[in-house]
C-alpha cells in the first residue's frame, strides 16, 4: 500500500467530505461537466465499480481499465462503490477524479467493536471479543441466529440438537463453568437490553425439542448487524454476576445512509435429513429374531412378537424413516425493508415472514413474522443523540408433539400399514401402537416477543457525555396440546370423555434502565477515558398451565369451559430484580500501551439478605508493539499486539426465590381444602458463583494486514459452585441449592486466521479460519468420594465425563459381551466403572471462504469437530428389537470372533444383562468426528449501468450437503439421540435493492 | 456539571440500591413458618400428602400404584401387551435397578415422607392449640409409618426417614428388618397417643386411632406376635364402629360401613382403581389372571360381584370389579379404601390359627365366607385351616394394594406359588431392586438387593 494514501484510511466519509469542502469549496460553477477518472485499489485498476450521482438515477460503471466518465453538475455528490471495498463519496470540483478504493476487511483500524457499555477500536481492545458480522449471518437459510454462529467464532461451541424448525441449540462459550448443566447459558443482550432467561414455556408440551425454546430463536437473523461475543475477564467483568458464561451482544441493523433505499429479499428452499440410520430390512430382521429364539432354546414365538409369529406379513417391508421422517421440508422467506433519512435523522423499517414445514409425516409448520424499526437522530450540533429500536417477532407453529425419529428406530420393518383402506388409523387388532397416534395429539404454539431499546445521549462538555439506556421487553407464549380420544387404540373403548387438552400461557416482562456517564481527556500522547453507570433491571414472569379433560365432543376440545374436569397444572409467578454500579477506566499512551480497568458491584434478588451483593472486576492491558520505533517501518509486519487480562465474573443464573423455604398451593382439593406443597429443600445462605478468568493473546497483521491472525490462551477457574446438589430421593427432593467449594477449570487455545488470499483486479478471495481447543477439568472437590457426585465426577477429569465399564469384547465361548472386573470381586458393580470418556468435542472450529469475481460471489463455510459418539451397540438388545444393520457381525457359535454378542429373544437374562452393561461401557463409543460443509452460497449480482442503484442479487445456497466422517450410525451431530438429524437444505433466492 | 451528575448518581444509588432488590413473594407462595402457625394451612400441608397417596404414588389406585404393579408382579394380573407399558416389566418380573417406575415410586414416597416430617417439625414448634396439634401430629406419624411399611414390603431393607435435614438424609443407611419394625412401632405408638381422643372423620377420609391399630396389627403379624394381633384386631371389631356390608356391591362405596380409612377423591371424581382395572373392549392390555379367576369357588358371590368378564366368540377376559366407576360422576361414589374391616377379621383369624386356636380362626374366616355366600369351613387340621385362610385372603383382598404379594412374601410362599405361573421368577425377586440412582447418589445404601 502506498504511503501517501495512508492517512485517508483513518478518516470517515463524513470527515472526508468536509475536507473536500475546505479544499475544493471555491471551485467555480458550471452548468454540467463530464467527470472522468480511474478507479483502482492499491495494486491495479478496478473494473465494474459503480459510480453514480447521489440520490439520482444517474450512474455508470468503470470499464476493464477502471475508467469511467459521468455527466454531472459541479458540486454534485458522486459515490464509488464496489463489493469488498469501502464506499467513497466525493463532491465534484474538477473534471478529473481518480479514486483509490480501500479494501473493506483489511482495514483493521476502522473496525469498531461493541463491548456493551462502550465501543472500542478493534486495534485497541484489551479484551477477548469475537465479532460476527451480518455477512456471515445472513447467508444462512436456517433462520436461526445460533445456527449462524456455529463455526464462526473461536471459543463458541454451538451444537445442534435437533433438525426441527426452531429447535434446540446448545451454546457454550469457553466450556462448562458451572456444575449445573443449565447454569452455563451466556447472557444475551439485544441492543443493550438483556433478553430474559425466565422460562415461561412448558417443555412437556413439545417433547420433540430437547431444549426450551429460546426467544433468540424467533429473532430474524436478517435484521442483525453484528454479533459480538465477549469472552475474557476484561470484556465480561463489566457484566459482573451475569458475565461468567460469556456475553452475546446482538446489534440490530440501523440506518446510516442518506436518501431512501428499499430492499426485497425472498428465498425458498427444501430440506431433507442428512443421513438415515442403517436399519434392518425385513429379511434380515426376521432372521435375527428367529436366531434369537433359537439361541434361547425357544421353539414357540411369543404371542406378542407379531413380526415373526405369523400375525404380520413376512414379506412386507416399510422403510419407516422414509415414511415418517422422509418428507421434504420446505421453507419460504420474504423480507422487505426500507431505510432512509438525512444526516441528522434516519430510520429503517423491515418486515419479514418465514414459513417452514418439517420432514415429518403430516402437515406441520412454523411461521415466523418479524417487524423491526429503528430511528436514529442527532441534533445539528451533534450533541444530542437518540437511538431507538423496536422489534416485534411472532412465531406460530403446530410442530409435532413427538419426534418421530426415535419411533423410526424401533418399529419393526414388517409392521402393518399406518392407515386402513378407509383412511382411519390401522391398529392391527391392537398388535401395535400406531405411531401416527402422535399426529392426533396436536400441538399449537404462538410465541410473541416485543423487544425495544432506547439510547439517549447528550454531550455535556467536550469531555463529558451522559447516556441513558432504557429497554422494555415482553415475551408471551401460548401453547396447547390436545390428546383427543382418537389418540388411543379404539379397542380401549374410549370416547370424547377421555379427550383432554393441556394449555400453557406464559408471560415475561422486563425493563432495564442504565444511566451512564462517559468522560475522556487527551493530552500529549495520553488518552484517558472513563465511564460509570448504574443498572436497574426488573423481570417478572408468570405461567399458567391448565388441563381440561372430558368433552361431550372433540369439536369442543379447545373450549376449556366445555371440559368435565379442569385442573390447574401449574401456576407460577416470579420476580427478579437486579441492581448494579459499573465502571471502566481506560488509559492509552501513544496508541502503544493500553490499560483497561473494569468493575461492577451488583446485587440480585436471587440471594438471601446476607449474600445479596458482590464485586467483580478485571484488569486488561495491551501493547501494540508495531507502534514501537524499531518495528514501525517493518514492511511485512503491519500490526502486532500482545494483550492479557485477569479478573472475575459471576453467575446468578439459578432461578428465583431459591433461598426461601416456601409452600405453594397445589390446586388439588382434598376434603374440600386445597393442598399446600413444600417447594424445595431450602438453603438461605447460598451466594454467587465466581469465575476467575486469565487470558493472554497475540494478534498479528501481516503483509499490509492481508493476513490477520490471533492466538489466545485462557484459563478460567470457577469456584464457589452454585449447584443444585443432586440428592438421593430419601431427602424428599432431587436436589438442594448450595455453594460447593469445588473448582472447575476451563483452559484452551483459540486460533483465528483471516486472510485476503487474492485481491487482483476483480478477483477477491478471503478466508477465515478458527480453531478452538478446549479442556475442561475438575480441579478440586472437597470430599468428592463421600459426596453425592462420587459416581459422576473425578478430580482431574472434565465435568462431562462418563464413568464406564471397560468392554473387553465378545466372549468366543459364551457369545456374551464381557467387561473388565476392575476390583476382581466377580461382580460388575459401579466400582468397576473406571473408564473415563468425554463425549464433548476435544477441538472444533470453522473455515469460511468468500470469493468474488466480477458479479459473481461464492462463499462457503466448513465446521469441524473432533469428538466421540455412541455407536450401534447402544441400541436395542441384539435379537430383541429393530436394530442397526451393523449388528449382523454377531456371535453365532462357540469360537466365533464377533463384535456383537449372541442374539436373544429377550428371555436370556444373561444376554439382556450383558447388553445393559454394554450401554454403560466404552464399547458403545466410537469416533464421531466430522467435517461438514455447513453452507455454500453462489450469488450473481445483476447491475444495470443505467440504473446503478438497482442491484439484483440472485443466489443459490446449500446447507449441510457434505459431511466427512467415519461415524456410520447416523448424523454425527445429533447421533443416535432419537432427535431429528440436521437437514440438508437447498435454497434459491433473490435480493433486490433499489 | 461533573459534580452535579456524580451527586445525582450517588443519590440514586444510596436511595435505591439496597431496597431495589427486595422482592415480594408471589401471591401463591407462603413461607414455611407461616404455614404451621395456622391450623388451616397446616392441615392443607397434610392433605397434600393424602392427595399424593391418592393420585401419585405407592398406594394410588392408578397404574403407578402398588395395587396394579404388585398384582402384575405376582399372580393376580396378566398383561397381554407388555411393550410400551411401564407395568410390563413388572408382569415379566424383569424389573431393572434403573427402572423408571421404581425410581418414581421411591422418590415420590420419600417426598411424601419429607412433607410429613416438615409437618411434624413445623407443628411441634407452632402455637396452634393442643387439640389441633394432636390431630395433625397423630395423622402425620401414622402416615409416615404407613408409607415406610409399604416401602419395607417392596424393598426390604430401607432407610427410615424421620427428619427434614437433607444432609443427614442424603447419607442415611438402611435399617435391618428388625430395626424397621421398631421404627414403625415407635411411630405408631406416638400416633396412637396423639389420636386416642380425636374423633373419626365423617367420611373416614383421615386416619383414626383404629387405622393406627390396623397398621399395628399388620406390623405384629410380620413379627408373628399373635397375641398383639388378636388384641388389636379384637379392639377394632369389638368397638362396633364398623360392620361388614352384607351386599358386596356396597363394600367400596364411600359410605361403606366396613371402611376404616379411605383416601378421598376430588368432588365428582372416584377412586382411581375403577379406571385402572375396568376395560370395556377386548382384548384389553391387562386382565385378571386365569389362575386367580379359576381359583374362586363356583358359588362365591365375590366372583359374580367383584369380577366382570367380557367375551366374544373366541376369547374372554375378566377384570376386577370391586370398584364400579371408571369415570367421574356427578357426586363422587367411591373413594380409595385403604383399610377395611374384612382384613381385620382375616388378620385375627390368622393369629388365632397360628397360636393354636383354629376354631376361633375358622369363625372369623366364616364371617367373611358367609358374606360371600359360601358355606362355612369345617374344623380341620391346623395346616388345612391355614390353607383356608390363605385362600380366603386371596379371594377377599385381591387387587387391593398388593395384599396377595405381601402375604405370599410374609408366608415365604412366593417361590412355591409364582414359579408355576411366572416363567422368569427367581427367589431373589421377592424384593424389588433399589433404584440405581439412589445407590449412586448415596453409597451408604449399598449393597443392592440380591439378584440385581
Describe the structure.
The complex is a heterodimer of chains A (994) and B (452). By secondary structure, chain A is mainly beta. Among the domains of chain A are: 98 residues, Immunoglobulins (Immunoglobulin-like, Sandwich); 139 residues, TonB-dependent receptor, plug domain (Ferric Hydroxamate Uptake Protein, Chain A, domain 1, Beta Complex). Chain A has eleven helices and 48 strands. In chain A, the strands form eleven sheets. Chain A has a 22-stranded antiparallel β-barrel. Chain A has a five-stranded mixed sheet with strand order 10-15-16-13-14. The longest helix of chain A has 14 residues. The two termini of chain A are 33 Å apart. Chain B is mainly alpha-helical and 452 residues long. Chain B has one domain: Serine Threonine Protein Phosphatase 5, Tetratricopeptide repeat, CATH 1.25.40.390. In chain B, 53% of the residues lie in helices and 6% in strands. In chain B, strands 2-4 form a two-stranded antiparallel sheet. Chain B has a two-stranded antiparallel ribbon with strand order 3-7. In chain B, strands 5-6 form a two-stranded antiparallel sheet. In chain B, helix 3 runs parallel beside helix 7, helix 7 runs parallel beside helix 10 and helix 15 packs antiparallel against helix 17. The radius of gyration of chain B is 25 Å and the shape is globular. Chain B starts with a helix and ends in an 11-residue tail after the last helix. At the A-B interface, strand 24, strand 25, strand 26, strand 30 and strand 31 of A face helix 1, strand 1, helix 2, helix 3 and helix 6 of B.
